[in-house]
Amino acid sequence: MSSSDGGHLGSVVLFLRLFLVLVVAPAFCSAAFRGFQTAPVEGRGTHLEWLPVRRSVAEVAAALAPVSPPLSNSSFVLAEERTRRKDPLDGYDYYTGGWNISNHDYWASVGLTAVPLFLIGVIWFVGFGLSLLLICCFYCCCSRRSYSYSRIAYALSLILLILFTCAAIAGCIILYTGQGKLHVTTSNTLDYVVDQADFTVENLKNFSENLSAAKRVSVGQSFLPADVQRKIDTIEAKLNSSSNELASRTKDNSEKIRDVLDTVRLCLIVIAAVMLALTFLGFLLSILGLQCPVYTLVIIGWILVAGTFILSGIFLLFHNVIGDTCVAMDDWVQHPHARTALDDILPCVDAATANESLYQSKEVTLQLANVVNQYIANISNRNFPPGIPLYYNQSGPVVPLLCNPFNPDLSERQCLSGEVGFGNASQVWRRYVCEVSARSGGDVCTTTGRLTQRVYSQIVAATSVSAGCYQYGPFLADLQGCTFVRNTFSTITHDNCPGLRRDSNWVYVGLAVVSGAVMLSLLFWVIYTWERRHRKNSKKQFITGS
After folding, report:
1. pLDDT confidence of residue 7
2. So where does this one cross the membrane (predicted)?
């Protein structure tokens, strides 16, 4: 593993955590170990405190070797067409910078999309408040004794009151259904992202354990070279420190985000329930003609409607940010090596640097295979005369050598005829195990064979550790070359983003419908109450006059 591998591993996980904030948390106002020793985990679906994680990853990078080459100078604007909106900070010219969460113009342009709902909320709050004040002043200062009554106005106000009450009920249903679906999709997205972070941590821990096991491997009196063991000690300490801290912070952050999701879900449910109760109660009191309770509900509804309009605007803004982020991720998948707004978060390098990042895993694989082959070739397959220290009555067919996947320069090597691979070495070598009898000099074969059970166990253990380091190669290459992140993004954009966009849209639509319908219902509560009172007073005047 090279220095760039540690840095880009940190970038991978940092972005996974950033995605929680960009896609999951904003939509609502806002890693575990089960390993094995010899092979990477397969079958997985493949602001909180950031700086300590970045520092720990940097420590890993400092322990490792070569520096990655610079990125390509070519640049690419993420989500260019989708983010082409008018920018109030630039004279309302169209914003052309693409998705860039560090750009104030981006936030200004996307925020402009929610301005209509914000304005409606403010205008409603101020306008209706002034209207209530004027009406109160009028009735306090100008007492009216004549009452005009229109059957058409009475019937029309009743019809519209029923209509807008039904619309408010429909809006509450949309809001409740939408928040439920959005909670499921955001929770699923969070689960997937956390699972990917856990997947990374778990494989790094397993790789670290394989390196640790490699230091303890011995075949006869042969061990890994001392310089390789020193490198393993340094890298293992850094990897364990980073992996443990990352696992802890991923767990803490995911729990905090789940708390946010649950809290906001509860808030949306409460909003839907309160608005539904307000609608029913207002309708019932209006029909009964209870003026004082109706006016009290009007004042409560006046404030609630303004708040829900503002909230619907916030959800519209984050709905657009979610859409922009999904398109930006898809664009990055198609252009992973171009210079984009993601470079500061997730720098990617070319294939040459990805190969350099595998240096340590390749070296351990090479050296362990050499230890096994040197023992087989120089001791097991030699016919020593009795009395020599290396003699244990080895006889029979020679033991096949282990296929070393790398040349001394760590380039790929093809297996030669007669060599055994990692997959079947233990089964093949078992045929060369002899029965032994214990003597003062050690185990001695009493039957045909070239491996004692003790030696067989040692070379199988060494081969298992070597195979583990070798099998982690693709995982490390995917981290370094951003293939891992590219696949993660691709899964999110195709499996999670459609649901996130659809369900966040339902929430803001539900809030907007509830706000508008309850706003109009408030007006007709007052109008219908007036018409009902006029109708009642007109009847009294008619009876008195007759």
Report:
1. 44
2. 12-33, 117-140, 152-176, 263-287, 294-318, 506-530
Look at residues 417, 442, 475 and tell me which one is the last residue of a structural domain. Answer: 475
Q: Give the range of the structural domain holding residue 332, as residue numbers without chain letter.
A: 3-63+80-140+147-215+227-348+482-545
Look at residue 220 and tell me if it is in a domain: no
How would you write 489-515 as a 3-class SS string?
Answer: HHHHHHHHHHHHHHHHHHHHHHHHHHH
State the total domains in the chain: 2
Distance, CA of 26 to CA of 319 (rounded, Å): 9
- Token reading at 10: 């940190």
b or e along 297-317 (b: 16 or more beta carbons within 10 Å of the residue's beta carbon)? Answer: bbeebbebbbebbbbbbbbbb
Place of tokens 């340094």: 234
pLDDT digits (tens, 9 = 90+) for 66-108: 333 444 446 788 999 999 999 999 899 999 999 988 889 999 9
Q: What are phi and psi of 523, to 5 degrees?
A: -60, -45
- Length in residues, the chain: 546
- Dist CA 437 CA 429 (whole Å): 20
Parallel, antiparallel or unpaired: strands 436-439 and 93-94: unpaired
Q: What is the pLDDT of residues 414-453, one digit of tens each?
A: 999 999 999 899 999 999 999 988 775 678 898 999 999 9
Residue 315's nearest CA partner among 513, 50, 519, 144 is: 513
pTM: 0.70
Check whether residue 365 and residue 454 sit in a common domain. yes
